[in-house]
Amino acid sequence: MRNCSIGSPEDGVAVANMFLGTGLMTYVSGQKTAKQDFVADPAKQLTKLPLVVITNRGTSGAAEIAATALVENKPRRRRRRADLRRRRSAPRCDA
Description:
Blueprint: H1 9-17, E1 24-28, E2 36-39, E3 51-55, H2 62-72, E4 82-86
Helix pairs in contact: 1-2
């Protein structure tokens, strides 16, 4: 996901959903918008193999949402779904 800065939030959710089977991936909320949760759909999960997510300063937008969802998702096993290897990114959203 290095140097990826394009895509909508929905694209990031779709990518994360390919690797997550359960749990809250992210949510969207705003001053004039109601909170909307994005929960993983087990039917869309492609693999349960271990993952490493690589990011850098060029990672933002949809890629940042996907990376955060994968790293922060902790199923019942109490182990993260993915490990993060990064150089500091320039966040443009809170995920």
